[in-house]
Amino acid sequence: MGPYVAVNTILIGLFGFAAIYHVVLWSQSRRERVLILFAVHCVLCALLSADLLALVTAQSVEQGQRALNWRTDFASLAQVSTVWLLSLLSGVRARWYVWFITVFAVATAAANVGIEPLAGTVTGVDSIVMSWGEQVSALHRGPATRALPIVYAVVLSVPIFGFVCAARLWTRDRIGGALLITASAGMLIGNLVGAWIDASGSPGLYVGAVPYAAWVLLLSIEIAREYRLRTAQRNQALQALEQSREQLQQLTSGLLMAREEERSAIAREIHDVLGQTLTALKMDVAWIGARSPSDAPPAFRQKLDAMSRLIDETVVTVRRIATSLRPGVLDDLGLAAAVEWQANEFEQRTGIPCALRITIDDEALDPQLSTALFRILQESLTNVARHSRASHVSVRLEQAGDGLILEVRDDGVGIAAADAASTRSIGLAGMRERAQLVGGSLSIFRAAGAGTTVRAQVPHRVAATATPAVTSPVREGAR
Residue 414 and residue 447: Cα distance in Å, rounded? Predict the structure, then answer.
């Protein structure tokens, strides 16, 4: 094996490895076009090197002619992948030129096979010894076609286009521009050598894929640099997005906490101020009734009774509003009692039986955690009353390992998968956000038969001043 055969054999392996590597890189990335196009380019270069081996080892006219035709075809098609790669890497959007080379190269390859060999017809094959001692086959062939100079004139424009692309790339990436200049210069030299051999009919050896080896190597470096740069930029964008998401979560957490504090303040004001005022009015009405003359008109007594009933109804309304804003049982007795109270309120208000099962420790849970689970329960029961048309609801609050699970299940019409995953529902989005803010998760899905299940799973956290936990008895049953 001589140097020429050895070099092309090595090139076949180099091009094959580069093609496989970039296919794998393409499959593992966002499937960028430049990677798969470069893999195709490497395959064409490997085929060209294999054809040059067939060319220098041909033993008959038929073998020589076939190898010469394939050499012209592979070299022409390699120009197509070259111009597309140059355009994609440099950002030069000369689409008219790229498409012209594509159509011209494909037409050239088709004409070379179907009409007439462009590099001439092989008339004989001799075995010669090169100056460095390697024995190869030399082709004797007739004159090349008149179209060959036109073909090479167009082909020589490809490395010129490479210099233009290198100049464009140089403005933003000096190393990349230098790599493209070197690769384009090697391609220009290879095309000039091929043009001289085909035009003169010399038995000399084609440079073939040797310039493409430098092109593939240098372009691989540039693609790797571009890929690493884009990966770094993408990672920076992901980090910025993650920071923005954390900031939004912190803002949302602050807003929810401020909202709860405001609701608590309003509930206290309503309960204390309005409650005291209504109590005073109730006492005044009673005082007037007690001191009214015995012969007062019946309408006067009826009016006093009506005012007393109205005050009583207003007191009930004020208590209901204050409790809906911030139930005192949640702050005074804890989450388990608040869940039991809410289930009882739901059953009395809607008439839907609500089965309750609570198996958590009677300990002071983290206030933010208790508030999040209680608000999720409220929103879930509100959705049941509004949309489910259910006849039975079950609520389960239990401790599972290091976490708490709140599950609300109904036997209603069920929720569609698209609606459960929708981000447009303010209520569902609010429940998910509350669960995420305390480090948990929320899942909403339709049961196997019918109905909807809402399950919130959060990590168990106790308040900083909590006393040691004492397991409470299981509280369950239909409310």
Answer: 7
**Nearest 10 degrees: Cα torsion 429, 431, 433, 438:** -170
Cα 193 from Cα 214, distance rounded (Å): 16
Written as six digits, the tokens of 454 are 């809402």
Concatenate the DSSP letters of all residues of 209-256 into one string.
THHHHHHHHHHHHHHHHHHHHHHHHHHHHHHHHHHHHHHHHHHHHHHH
In the chain, the amino acid numbered 61 is V
In CATH terms, the fold of domain 3-240 is Rhopdopsin 7-helix transmembrane proteins (1.20.1070)
For 412, which DSSP code? S
Residue ranges covered by each domain of the chain: 3-240, 332-478
Bridge partners of 475, per DSSP, are 358
Q: Is the pTM of this model over 0.85?
A: no
- Write the single-letter amino acid at 252: T
- What's at 464, amino acid-wise? A
Closest CA to 15 of 178, 209, 225: 209
Percent of the chain with pLDDT over 70: 87
For residue 415, pLDDT over 80 is answered with no
pLDDT digits (tens, 9 = 90+) for 186-235: 888 888 887 877 777 666 677 666 666 766 776 677 667 777 777 788 88
State which amino acid sits at residue 204: G
- Scored b (16 or more CB within 10 A) or e, 272-311 reads eebbeebeebbeebeeeeeeeeeeeeeeeeeebeebeeeb
The alpha carbon of residue 39 and the mean position of all alpha carbons in its chain are separated, in whole angstroms, by: 25
**What are the structure tokens assigned to 112, written together?**
């070379």
Task: List the structure tokens of 467.
Answer: 């006393």
DSSP state of 413: S
Closest C-alpha among 69, 61, 17 to residue 43 = 17
The side-by-side arrangement of strands in the sheet containing 354-359 is 441-446, 452-459, 403-410, 393-400, 354-359, 475-478
Cβ atoms of residues 156 and 101 within 8 Å: no
User: What dotted CATH number matches 332-478?
Assistant: 3.30.565.10
Interatomic CA distance for residues 288 and 280, integer angstroms: 12
Greatest alpha-carbon span in the chain: 144
